């Protein structure tokens, strides 16, 4: 029983080789959390702006004693342009949120690439070729770390 306990304990001891990987996972998760918080805050601010400008548009439309359909359409179009700009910003910021973890995960790998190329000796100075076909693409993907 004590031998089994020692073997199990050895599984949970953090060895020096695994530490950088765990630190990288932590860095990626912290970055994801920061980006998600920022996106959520900005998204809610844009929704509040949409409500505020929508109310202003309604007040502007209803402010005159005589209805003016042309002015109402212009006011609505102005509000819709602002809404389209807000949606565009939502999309742009969402793409940043989606791409940022991949960039964080790739950072250490790009730092270690020169050392790997220097140690191989034969591939120095050669530009990496683009993989062609599905099998080559899957081989190329297997060279990269899988984010957790």
UniProtKB/TrEMBL annotation:
Domain of life: Bacteria
InterPro entries: Phasin
Residues of the Phasin domain: 14-99
Biased composition (Low complexity): 125-138
Renumbered residue ranges of the record's region Disordered: 105-148
Protein's name in the database: Phasin domain-containing protein
Species name: Roseovarius gahaiensis
């Amino acid at each position: 029983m004590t031998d089994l306990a020692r073997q199990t304990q050895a599984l949970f001891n953090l060895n020096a080789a695994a530490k950088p990987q765990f630190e990288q996972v932590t860095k990626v998760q912290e970055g994801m959390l920061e980006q998600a918080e920022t996106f959520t805050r900005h998204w809610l601010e844009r929704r509040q702006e949409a409500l505020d400008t929508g109310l202003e548009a309604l007040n502007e439309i209803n402010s005159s004693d005589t209805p003016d359909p042309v002015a109402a359409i212009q006011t609505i179009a102005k509000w819709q342009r602002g809404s389209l700009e807000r949606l565009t910003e939502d999309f742009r910021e969402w793409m940043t949120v989606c791409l940022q973890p991949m960039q964080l995960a790739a950072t250490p790998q790009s730092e270690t690439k020169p050392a790997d190329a220097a140690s191989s000796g034969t591939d120095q100075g050669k530009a990496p070729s683009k993989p062609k076909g599905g099998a080559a693409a899957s081989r190329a993907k297997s060279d990269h770390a899988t984010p957790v």
